[in-house]
Amino acid sequence: MTGFDTLLDLVLSALLVGGGIFTLIGSYGLIRLPRPMQRLHAPTKATTIGVGAALAVSALDGLGQGQISWQELLITLFLLLTAPVSALFLAKTLILRGEADRDLPPSPTGAAWSTLAPPRQDP
Amino acid sequence: MRRLLPHPYLSLTLVVLWFLLVNQWKLGSLVMALILGTVIPLLTSAWWPDRPRIRRPFALAAYVALVLWDVIVANFQVARIVLFMPRDRIRSAWITVPLDLTQPEAISLLAGTITMTPGTLTADLSADGRALLVHALHAPDPEAVRDDIKARYESRLQRIFA
Lengths: 123, 162
What we know:
The complex is a heterodimer. Chain A is mostly helical. Chain A contains four helices and no strands. Chain A is elongated and about 65 Å long. A three-stranded antiparallel sheet of chain B has the order 1-3-2. Chain B has two domains: 40 residues, no CATH class; 104 residues, 2-Layer Sandwich (Alpha-Beta Plaits). Chain B starts with 7 loop residues before the first helix and ends with a helix. By secondary structure, chain B is mostly helical. The radius of gyration of chain B is 19 Å and the shape is globular. Chains A and B meet through helix 1, helix 3 and helix 4 of A and helix 1, helix 3, strand 1, helix 4 and strand 2 of B.
C-alpha cells in the first residue's frame, strides 16, 4: 500500500506544481501582452487549469483517504459557468469605452453589436 | 404542474446541486433540496419565460466532456503564446460568427464555450441575436477559426437543442 501512496503523492504534487505554473503564466500574460483585449485571454484560460488542478488534487487526496467529496466538482462547474460571464463583461466594458483594439467588424446581418446599439424600447 | 414547476430541469439540477453541496445523504437535506428546487425556479421564472428544448441530454454530456478536454488544450496553447511568441508576431483578430442557433440557452452555451476554448473569447452579441463577436488572441486565418467554431461546437449544439 505504501508504494501506491507514494505514487499518489507524487502525482498530486506534480498536479499542484503544474497548476501553480499555469496560474503564474496567466498573471505573467497580464503584464506581457500589450493590448487590453489580448490581456483578457491570459487570465481567463490559464487560471482555469490552475484552479482545476488544485481542485483535482483536493478531490484525489480525499479519495486516497477513502472519502468521496463532490464539492470540488461543484466548484469546477461554477467556475466554468462564471468565468465566461466575467470575461464577457470585461470585453463589453472595453468595447463601450473604445479601448478594444482596432475597429469592430460589422455583424453579418447588419445589426449593431448590442453593447453599442441604442437601448431597446420596451413595448 | 407547469405553474408550480416552470423549469423541471432547473429544479432537478438544484436538488442534485444541494446534495453535492452538503455532501451527505440525510432526509433533512432532501427536504431542503426540494424546497430550493421549487422556490428558486418560481422566483426566477419572470426572467426566464421559455423552457429550453433539449432533445438529446446524453449528447449534452458528451459535449461537456469535449469542451473540458478542449479547455485543457486551450491552456497549453495560450501559455505557449504568452511565454514564447514575440509580441509583434501575435496576430489578434476580430471574428464574426453568424449563428444558426436560435434558442437563448444554446447561444449562451456556445458563447461560454468559445470563451473557455483555444485562444478565443466571446466579446459581444449582435442586437438582433444572430451573430457573435469573437476576439482571437492569435489567428493568422480568422475564417478558419470561424469555421472551426461552427463545425466543432455549433453543429453539436444544434443537434442537442431541438
